Each structure stands twice: as C-alpha cells, then as structure tokens.
Amino acid sequence: MAYPVVSNPYGFRPLNRIDGLPYAGAFRQLPIASNYNTAIYYGDPVAIVTGGTIAKSSTSGSEITSAVIAGIFVGVQYVNAQGQTVQAQYYPGTSVTSAIAYVVDDPMAAFQVAVGYANGVVTTVQQNAVGTNMSYYAGTGSATTGDSGAWVTAASGANTSTLPWRVIRVVPDTNVTSTTFCEVLVKINTQQYNVALANNLA
After folding, report:
1. Does some domain include residue 62?
2. Within 10 A of 85 (CB to CB), how many other CB atoms are there?
3. Residues in the chain with pLDDT values less than 50
4. Strand partners for 80
C-alpha cells in the first residue's frame, strides 16, 4: 500500500514549475472586497473580478467545466472584529476588513491535487491522463484545517479547450497500484493573465 494514503480532497497545492524549476514560495498580494462574504480556503482557485479584487473562481456545487482562474489562494491577512491584524490559512468571509489574499498566480506553476468522483470520494486515473484537460469541483473547505476541498474530476480527461486544468504528471508517491494514481500535477489551462480580453474577468 502506498504511503501516505490520500483519503480526502485538499485543493490545489503549489509544488514546482512546469519547466522543472522549484517553486520558491512566491505569491502576489491582491485585495478582497470588503463586502465579499464567501469563505476562501488554502488551495482554492481564485479570479480577479471587477474592481481588481479577488474572489473564488467558482462556488458551484456541480462539475466546473470552464473557469477563468488567476491563481491559487494560499493565505490571507485581515483585520478581525476586535481590530487585530490576523494572518491566516483561510478567509472566513465575514466580520473582517482590509483583507489581502496571497495568490500563487505564476502561469508556469504546477499544482498537486487529488482525483475524485463527482461525490468527492478519492479515486484514481492511469498514466494516460497525462496531457489531457480536466474539470474540477470546488468542494467544501474546512474551517478546522483551513484547507480547500477542491479536486479534479477523474472521468473528465479530454482535449476540450475550455476545461480549466491540464494534467502534466501523475504522482507516483501515493499510487494505489503500479498503474493507478490518486493524485496528479496540473497547470492552469485557462489562466486569467493569458486571456486576451479584459472583459473576461470573472
């Protein structure tokens, strides 16, 4: 049995760059609107919306087959109701002000993510998933861990250009068998900075 066991989706985790260079931890600081009341968790895809602020790319509970994505949310700084400045793993969505999101928005970044069924149960793909495009589910984040609940959809591997993720590698460290893999590395296929028209903001 592979170790560690991947039992639940955890979102998109920055790992390295697709050109082979290591990920140095760089991120961009972008504001969250003061009236934005949706929680954002570590590993959630986010987009730049009208006004130049950050929001979740999609909050849909259904399969997300197209999405404009600026990057992946990896933390936040905000002022809480007591007037204290807090640095946190997730944005709670209420009772905070002056929120600044930390976003990994390098178009060359590669992210590790779990593969799941539509119900969020972790499953596997084979080597032939590499090079295909995939959809994802936003999932439900955890206020306990601060982690996203997002995953890519196992059955979605295709060449459809609107699918938001491109699989660039399977992850052998957590393979279930020698030919089946429950995690993959992906890059953003519909990266917001590469969209020619500015009105494609989410």
Report:
1. yes
2. 9
3. 1-2
4. none
**Any residues with CB less than 8 A from the CB of 143 and at least 6 apart, and which?**
39, 90, 92
Where do we find the tokens 């989706």? Answer: 9
Range of the domain at 71: 13-191
**Inter-residue contact 52 to 103 (CB < 8 Å):** no
**β-sheet bridge partners, residue 147:** 42
For 2, residues 6+ apart whose C-beta sits below 8 A from its C-beta are 173, 174, 175, 176
Whether 196 is in a domain gets the answer: no
Domain annotation covers residue 3? no
Quote the CA–CA distance of 1 and 174 in Å, as a whole number.
9
135 occurs within a structural domain = yes
CA–CA distance, 133 with 65 (Å, rounded to integer):
10
pTM exceeds 0.85: yes
Overall number of domains in the chain:
1
Q: How far apart are CA 17 and CA 6, in angstroms?
A: 23
The CA distance from 57 to 54, in Å, is 9
